[in-house]
Amino acid sequence: MYKPMALKLRATIILLFCAVAPPMNAQNGGIHPNIRETLEQMESIAKPDTVKKVILDYAQYQIYYEKVYHPIPSVRQPEAKWIQVLQVGSQWHAFANLGNLQADSIWDASIRAGKRLVDFYTAYSNASYSVRVPGWILLNNVTDTLEFYDRIFVEHYCYKEPIPKMEWKLLEGDTIVAGYACKKASTYFRGRDYIAWYTEEVPLAYGPYKFRGLPGLITCLYDTARDHSYSLVGLEKVQGKYIYRKPNKNTFNTTRLGLLKAKKNYTSHPDGYKSDKIISHTGSAKKQNIPYNPIELE
What we know:
36% strand, signal, 22% helix, 5 helices
């Protein structure tokens, strides 16, 4: 079962990883010498702190999905897989990448234990970069709204919108997913047709990403092109797990369509990316376009 130094420093570490050197030394599995030197310099002028959080709720359940993503539409390779987690609280839900949650936990536990940054950076970065696509969704079931947090390189973005109302069509058919008897349904959502399998054995009307509203937990979901799919791989009842927001004064508030446009612009022209945080690119190699196949097409 799957069970900060200020944010500015954390963003700087991400920038170093992306723009300066890989985090691992290929020969011995340690931190790349360039990054080790920089981390030691940072420790000499600033003291790390735990991850800053605004606690919104406590999770009662954690539901784990394997996400499969094909960055080139309708093409099976390349393919990326990673684990995402739906946290279900009494008022708030969160949908996040398991690697991001693990990275935050590693950071907190290491700082509280008095460890030096260089001593836990490898474990922290391995968890952080196990994620293939960033994103963090907070869903408020009282106000019926959601907050979507994302990143383009080292720039952080957020938009808010009403929680989408899915128009499901219940279909004939049954199957077994992760040991649960499941029924079939379909819906259309922002440019894609989806098939879902859900189980009434788990009376939670929720699912991965923004999908919800069926008479039971969604155990499997995929668009008909099979570019995005989610499969249940674990479910546990939990206590003491926070559902939290990570405040960042540098987060840029935008709209859903504004973020979609910005990501398309970046992936189409990565060499043209400019930011107040990035003065220049390291190296002279021309960056190729980044395959990008968003789950929401419109």
